[in-house]
Amino acid sequence: MLSFVDLAARPEFSVSVVDCLDDHRGWKGEQPREDVRLVLVQRGGFRRRARGEVADLDRTVGYLGLPGEEEHFAHPAGGDVCTSIGLTPRLWHAVAGEAPRLARSSLYVDGRLDLAHRRLLAATRTADDVAEEVAGLVAEVVGQVVTTTVPDGTGDRALVARARGVIGDDHPAAAGLIPLAELLGVSPYRLSRAFTRELGVSLTRYRNRVRVGRALDRLERGESRLAVLAADLGFSDQAHLCRTVREHLGHTPTALRRLLGANRSTTPTQECAASIPTYMHE
């Protein structure tokens, strides 16, 4: 028996935790799927057979599943818990190339891939950087199993300048790493890495810095409807707005209105203090 917990869902990818309670030594077939899957084990282990190859999977070995593959699984050691990252073929090809040649379908979970997995799971608990962590994890996989050449990072400065222009213009594609990369005609991983190389901050943090600046403009003019402000600026909700503003500026939006001399009457539902967690997110 399988149970699924969805951690993140976007048009281009999904992240789920799969808890398998099966305990059988024989092979059981699964229906072919249309997405690309990266499966990394959190606990326990199982066996997979695909394309005539058998792999024993545990926390040190995961697998890459391709669309249309016939897969069979066995669980001779009992149940397991895995992270399953589903990618659209379009996103996979944006990172791996249009016709990637694969050395193998099993993934050795070295320290870098293990860390990328853990960072992704941590990111699903925030609202900002899941796409960047997915791109980073996919890039680790591509570097390990794809034998074709992936474009290098030449031209990063011009790419970042173009991306900053799109973000500054508040283009709809600027709302996320993947649509922005698609608009600019590059892979999400390359765009993410380019920002870190050129500016020293992630694309998510840069985009949030621009949003925080716009929030300051609105707060200075006396905006008190924080839920409306959050929606207008592209935050997932009021709590996300409050957390991000405090992370960048050290103050809640309500406190900033006072500091900027724009204090007006506010209701308790407009305060942020109750929605600010005790930890800080990067």
UniProtKB/TrEMBL annotation:
The record ties this protein, via PROSITE patterns, to: HTH_ARAC_FAMILY_1, HTH_ARAC_FAMILY_2
Domain of life according to the entry: Bacteria
Q: Which Pfam families match?
A: HTH_18
Annotated ranges, domain HTH araC/xylS-type: 161-259
- Assigned keywords, A-Z: DNA-binding, Transcription, Transcription regulation
Q: Which PANTHER family match?
A: HTH-TYPE TRANSCRIPTIONAL ACTIVATOR RHAS-RELATED
Listed name of the protein = Helix-turn-helix transcriptional regulator
Q: Which organism is it from?
A: Lentzea rhizosphaerae
Taxon lineage: Bacteria, Bacillati, Actinomycetota, Actinomycetes, Pseudonocardiales
